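Structure tokens please, single chain.
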Amino acid sequence: MKKVLTVLGTRPEIIKLSPLIPLLSQHFVHVLVHSGQHYSYEMDAVFFHELNLPAVQHSLAVGSASHGEQTARMLSRLESILLEERPDLVLVQGDTNTTLSGGLAAAKLGIPVAHLEAGCRSFNRRMPEELNRVMVDHLSEVLLVPDALAQDNLCAEGIPESRITLTGSSAIDAVQRNLHFADKSPILQKMELEAGSYLALTLHRAENTEPDRLPGIVQALNELAEEKTIVFAMHPRTAATIQRLDLMLSPQIRSCEPLGYLDTLKLVGHACALLTDSGGLQEEAAALGTPALILRNETEWRYLVDASVHLLVGNSYTSIRDGVRAALQPDTLDRLRATPAPLWPGASERACEGVMKYLS
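Here you go.
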């Protein structure tokens, strides 16, 4: 039986791979490697438990660091594991430093790479994620793309169509697989929230947590919170920058540590709207029927904006303040909620079939 080794290390990767991992385990000898990019495997164990996933076989425990240092640690620690395991293919997902390191370490050893969520582009090369995804796409043999636009992006960059498989997005599968578990989450009762009475917020992109950008964002959020309660699941990077810059959050912003996946689904699914700069949450919100107001000037999930399911509001003080207020007008909010999202379930099965076809 052929061996597939999957490298993951962030919570979005765990979520989006959760429907695919059981399928890979059915058809291959499957090895899981956790990089520890954002958290240790021990901190992420709750995600593995919630999503009914097997334990990892290897943990790199690289921890937080600069992009260069973190990537170097992963490359160094992955190489010996790949030489020991000798997989027939390495699978990576998304656009993180873990994605880049897994793909690069494998490619340098002559091991084929499969990239789940290939072809996504923001066309903003200032984003580390954009650089990661472009590089991994061009060293991968199997490119598993979420939509036709991503496929077009790869073809425009000269990647042969024979290496591309249109799968859809596994984030949709993950929501559908786990929504009935999320219904049992007590997060609304714990935070004393009523469905539809609050805005859910996440903010973590490097561009939004810079000292010249974050104060304006916080000012806009503070003003909006006077009109509607905001629940802020705060990323450690964002929390550290807020503390370092001595920024004050409105009492109407209820901040908490990052939530588990099932709590997040429950919180976002019952929010009036989602404010986010996260890519994964944009798709999850669409699957949940919650409008996302995207705190960026561009998005990799353009199809959801083009379909009028979500809105780009930008990341300046004025654009956030005015854009969110306009989006929350009853007519606009009702229109966003009533617009069906062009979702395509079954991505995980198609991705597994793509890997099986390559290794056959």
